[in-house]
Amino acid sequence: MYFKMDQKFKDYFKNNLRQIFFYIIDDCNLRCEQCLYKLEIGFQLEKKEVDFDDAIKLLSDFREMGAIKLTLMGGEPTLYGIKENNKPLLELIKKAKELGYEYVRIDTNGQFNSKLLEQPEFKMLDEITFSIDGPNKEINDSIRGYGSFDKCVNNIKRAKELGYNIDITSCISKYMINRDENGNLYLDRMIKFAEDLGIERINFHSLFKTGVPRDYFSGNLDITVNDWFKVWEEIEKKVDNKEYKIPVRVPQSFTTKKEFEKNPAYYGYCSCKSRSRILVHPNGMLRVCSLMIGTPYGIARYYDGQIKWDDSPTNELKAHKFDEDTPCTNQFKHNKFGDFVPTCVSFKPKQEELVWKELEWERRRIEKKNSKIKTVIGFTDKVVQDKVIKTIEDLDFVDIIGTAKDGEETYNKIINLKPDMVFMQYNYNNGINGFDMIKKANTHLKLDIPVFNIIDNNVPNEEKHEIIHLIGSKMNSVLEKQDPYEELVKDILKEYREYDFK
Ligand SMILES: C[S@@+](CC[C@H](N)C(=O)[O-])C[C@H]1O[C@@H](n2cnc3c(N)ncnc32)[C@H](O)[C@@H]1O
Ligand code: SF4
Ligand code: SF4
């Protein structure tokens, strides 16, 4: 570790840290009306950019603590080291990949010189996210500034030609919930616009005034809860019916009190409680909740080679109830939303996002209060098969809905019967093996993917890691045959019941 860290900082994250939002620069070449970063762009006491050496050391330390995903942002990250032709930015990307970050992305307004896209280090990015706030210049440029739409779209097209993995991110302003002369929601048109550009996916941020500091400096483009809920339901239905060609990530933003009470473990998602992310700023601020941007609230400060935990009243975690599933702590202070309660700004149901998937949060969505856990069991070894069946038959909260004797049969039962859990071996003598089975089932079943429990002595380590990234590590498990696996099977099922029924 390069930084001398307070124990409280280490204790807070333990081994949960997965992603870094690195605000590498407090400067921008646009002045978007809704911008949450306005105060930092407008004023710094000293540093505009994160010190390059500090950046590398922080990346290295956080990687050691478990971070795998990095987002470079700001301000406008493509201005980082602009006087040196972006050399520091390019070095940072390269270094992050060398340090083992699996997913490095940049979040940009797309106004940069397109030559940047041709730099080999830039090509190491796993994703470029371009921000556009409307499907046409009229809407986008009224928010982001004259000419910004054309510049950004040109860079998206160039990036596409060069084979980049591209995402668009868009704010849901009051314009987006309007309809055009044909009755189409502009939000819907935004999704179609992204599809037509041939990009990989689209992500949205919502703009509300919810009693948080940014209400005062993020313009007047916000929408009301009632208006949003109608639109959200319309879009969500289309997502569920698979009407869009690309994945769409929409923040739910609110849910009804009734719905929250039915499933607090699901709706109570909070990044401060999951401890999976950190926001890093050039002025030394380390924080978790993005709603606290522009305030003195954070969890710690880094400076002079140290990370100092904030023990003062400005520690943003002070108001959080860590042992309770609550609506969003920072937005719920006034409880002024009638029948609705606010959810986390990062709560985007059913999203196909690396860390969300690793947390396996979607499993909490499925309500099975009165139903049994449905299992499929697939072993060629009759002894193991019988032992697992016998163990499961003893548990009154579990149903065996299918058994199989080889890989092919196991796979078909998973796809056709959609169990909650599978107990199987990894290496089948012929046909499909465990790795291919999980990959195929993941593509086919998406959110209906079961929990996989593998009892096998020969699962290659590198495949274990890939599996974790595909389907997460919270519930899925690999057991060795020499372990007392019957007892472990029992424990796994009990744990699953607890996890789901929380
Ligand atoms: C602060 S910007 C920094 C990166 C870059 N300058 C850009 O615009 O993409 C990161 C993202 O936050 C979004 N954003 C700006 N103001 C926001 C607000 N008030 N609420 C939610 N998201 C906001 C931007 O549209 C952008 O997609
Ligand atoms: S481009 Fe990004 S950082 Fe710059 S003003 Fe717009 S939202 Fe803010
Ligand atoms: S937005 Fe709310 S729920 Fe999300 S991290 Fe911040 S306080 Fe937690």
Give an overview of the whole structure.
The protein is 34% helix and 17% strand. The chain has 502 residues and is α/β, with parallel strands linked by helices. It folds into two domains: 4-256 and 273-317, Alpha-Beta Barrel (TIM Barrel), CATH 3.20.20.70; 366-501, 3-Layer(aba) Sandwich (Rossmann fold), CATH 3.40.50.2300. The strands form three sheets. A twelve-stranded mixed beta sheet has the order 1-13-12-11-10-2-3-4-5-6-7-8. A five-stranded parallel beta sheet has the order 16-15-17-18-19, with helices on both faces. The protein has a two-stranded antiparallel ribbon with strand order 9-14. The protein is globular and about 70 Å long. The model has no long low-confidence stretch (mean pLDDT 92). S-adenosylmethionine (SAM) binds next to strand 3, strand 4 and strand 6. One iron/sulfur cluster (SF4) binds next to loops.
Secondary structure topology:
Blueprint: E1 4-5, H1 7-13, E2 19-25, H2 38-42, H3 52-64, E3 69-74, H4 87-98, E4 103-108, E5 127-131, H5 137-144, H6 148-161, E6 166-172, H7 186-197, E7 201-206, H8 225-240, E8 248-249, E9 254-256, H9 257-262, H10 264-267, H11 271-274, E10 277-280, E11 285-287, E12 300-303, E13 306-309, E14 340-342, H12 354-359, E15 373-378, H13 382-393, E16 398-404, H14 407-417, E17 421-424, H15 434-445, E18 451-455, H16 461-471, E19 477-479, H17 485-501
Parallel strand pairs: 1-13, 2-3, 2-10, 3-4, 4-5, 5-6, 6-7, 7-8, 15-16, 15-17, 17-18, 18-19
Antiparallel strand pairs: 9-14, 10-11, 11-12, 12-13
Bound molecules: S-adenosylmethionine and iron/sulfur cluster (SF4) (2 copies).
